[in-house]
């Protein structure tokens, strides 16, 4: 059983898999920074790219994209007071006030 667990970690920590997950993260941040595009929509938009990928590559790509969208919803909420996702509505109140007082970078770091 421990050998199977070790093999699973070895497969997940492969540099190609980690790289594709980071690529998905960047794609998710790009899509999620657009106001109104939710994580569900981003995964639906990016899912066709995974049709030609192996399962071990496609799932980390979509997971990275999902996590990127969840973070990126706070970017327009902080900078232009328009929540990118419904979950970023509370971030718009506090984060935009920080951005107007010249602390936008700090607000984005806190939301990360």
TrEMBL record:
<feature type="transmembrane region" description="Helical">
    <location>
        <begin position="12"/>
        <end position="34"/>
    </location>
</feature>
<keyword id="KW-0472">Membrane</keyword>
<keyword id="KW-1133">Transmembrane helix</keyword>
<protein>
    <submittedName>
        <fullName>Putative tricarboxylic transport membrane protein</fullName>
    </submittedName>
</protein>
<feature type="domain" description="DUF112">
    <location>
        <begin position="20"/>
        <end position="111"/>
    </location>
</feature>
<feature type="transmembrane region" description="Helical">
    <location>
        <begin position="40"/>
        <end position="63"/>
    </location>
</feature>
<dbReference type="Pfam" id="PF01970">
    <property type="entry name" value="TctA"/>
</dbReference>
<dbReference type="InterPro" id="IPR002823">
    <property type="entry name" value="DUF112_TM"/>
</dbReference>
<keyword id="KW-0812">Transmembrane</keyword>
């Amino acid at each position: 059983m421990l050998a199977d667990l070790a093999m699973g970690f070895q497969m997940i920590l492969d540099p190609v898999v980690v790289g594709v997950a980071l690529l998905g993260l960047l794609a998710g941040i790009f899509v999620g920074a657009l106001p109104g595009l939710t994580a569900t929509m981003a995964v639906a938009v990016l899912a066709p790219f995974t049709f030609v990928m192996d399962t071990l590559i496609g799932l980390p790509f979509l997971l990275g994209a999902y996590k990127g969208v969840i973070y990126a919803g706070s970017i327009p909420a902080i900078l232009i007071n328009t929540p990118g996702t419904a979950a970023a509505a509370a971030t718009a109140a506090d984060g935009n006030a920080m951005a107007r007082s010249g602390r936008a970078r700090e607000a984005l770091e806190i939301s990360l």
